[in-house]
TrEMBL record:
Keywords: DNA-binding, Transcription, Transcription regulation. Residues 36-55, 229-248 bind DNA. Residues 13-73, 206-266 form the HTH tetR-type domain. Pfam families: TetR_N. It comes from the Bacteria. This is TetR/AcrR family transcriptional regulator. InterPro entries: DNA-bd_HTH_TetR-type_CS (IPR023772), HTH-type_TetR-like_transc_reg (IPR050109), HTH_TetR (IPR001647). It comes from Pseudonocardia oceani. PANTHER family: HTH-TYPE TRANSCRIPTIONAL REGULATOR BETI (PTHR30055:SF234), HTH-TYPE TRANSCRIPTIONAL REGULATOR RUTR (PTHR30055).
Length: 392
């Protein structure tokens, strides 16, 4: 979305579009909390006052940026009536790689907006999902409306996964197109919820430290680290804000503790999947089961593990990035053992798409509330990986 920066003092007719394009790039690269209006003004070589002629403030500019980043996908779907399913998958992959910033903006950074503006951004995303749902329903008369909806959101999540890692577009367009085609063509369950273990309402930890950690993790996931105060955490945990410091030196320490909790859960489940499997396919199924369990039961921890690590001190950030890389590598190597036709990079694209499909689905309220959602989203992810239910 980058465009040439006009010389200072000039007034190009497309200045508003240039401002939005610069905002998209900066919000994606630096994050909403780390970008000021002055930063965006500098990127388009104008005085900050020039931005306010077009946007009242940073939140309004972010909404415009998020909507602009998502618009090419909507336009692609609106023009897709005459395309075959494979052509649609290729076009969606191409437009996503050309506008990779969208996923980070509407999945991660939009949480920092006020509730009404967050809903505005989400409404655009729902509109895109409806377009894709209608197309899937047309191409697949074998699925129900709810199943087409799940496949639509899953495909959008798979596409958005490229927003969070580095890819060479020319190399991965075909890989991403294949991912999309497999997702929209996946078998889905009836989502009845039969055979699933009922969940209770949940209990609150008795110790203050655990309550503080639980509530902080939930707030970081819901609003983003930068928007949460120590007073917010204390209030949610039922104590005074300053009392939080009796248990954790600061907010960053709380984020690190939540991150460590999520990572340890993942690594214990990975160890169990490896230790109890007969082969790589069985281990991969076990890993997928554990990811679905964690994402649906503690989405805040998964969000922390996959979330914005720029708020951490350098040593903690590097440790967290290495843990993310190593965990995905375990999945990738198992997948390559099951699918020896895939090279490491192509396998990793599929793994990251699976992780995002499950995580994003678990954090999409209308999907997560449906009976049988864990089994349904697992079926989609298993099809993408090429593994079936236990025993297959």
């Amino acid at each position: 979305m980058s465009q040439p920066t006009p010389a200072r003092g000039t007034r190009p007719r497309n200045r508003r579009a240039l401002i939005v394009a610069a905002a998209v790039e900066l919000f994606h690269r630096v994050g909403y909390a780390g970008v000021s209006m002055s930063d965006i003004a500098a990127a388009v070589n104008v005085a900050p006052s020039a931005l306010y002629r077009h946007f009242p403030g940073k939140t309004d500019l972010f909404v415009a940026a998020a909507r602009a980043a998502l618009a090419p996908t909507a336009e692609c779907l609106a023009a897709s009536d005459e395309w075959s399913p494979d052509e649609l998958a290729r076009e969606l992959a191409a437009v996503t790689l050309a506008h990779r910033e969208a996923g980070v903006l509407w999945q991660r950074e939009a949480r920092l907006l006020p509730v009404d503006l967050r809903r505005e951004v989400r409404a655009d995303l729902r509109g895109v999902a409806r377009l894709l749902t209608a197309r899937i329903a047309r191409d697949r008369p074998d699925v129900t409306a709810e199943q087409a909806d799940l496949l639509s959101w899953s495909a959008l999540a798979a596409l958005s996964s490229v927003s969070f890692h580095q890819l060479q577009p020319a190399r991965f367009e075909a890989v991403l197109a294949d991912v999309v085609a497999r997702v929209v063509g996946a078998p889905v369950t009836d989502a009845s919820g039969a055979g699933e273990v009922p969940r209770g309402a949940g209990l609150v930890p008795r110790t203050r430290r655990e309550r503080v950690l639980r509530e902080a993790s939930a707030l970081f996931s819901e609003r983003g680290f930068a928007a949460v105060t120590v007073d917010d955490i204390g209030r949610a945990a039922g104590i005074a804000g300053p009392s939080v410091y009796h248990h954790f030196p600061g907010k960053q320490d709380l984020l690190l503790a939540a991150l460590d909790r999520g990572n340890e859960w993942l690594w214990m489940e990975l160890d169990s999947a490896l230790a109890t499997a007969d082969d790589e396919a069985g281990a991969l199924r076990g890993l997928l089961d554990s990811w679905v369990r964690l994402a649906t039961r503690r989405p805040d921890l998964v969000d922390t593990v996959l979330g914005d690590l720029r708020q951490l001190p350098e040593a903690g950030r590097q440790r967290a990035l290495q843990a993310q890389h190593d965990y995905a590598t375990e999945w990738t190597e198992l997948l390559r053992a099951v699918r020896p036709d895939l090279d490491a990079a192509a396998a990793r694209v599929r793994v990251l798409a699976v992780l995002m499909i499950v995580n994003d689905g678990a954090q999409t309220p209308h999907l997560a509330r449906r009976p049988g959602f864990p089994a349904a989203v697992r079926a989609v992810a298993a099809h993408l990986l090429g593994v079936g239910p236990a025993g297959s």
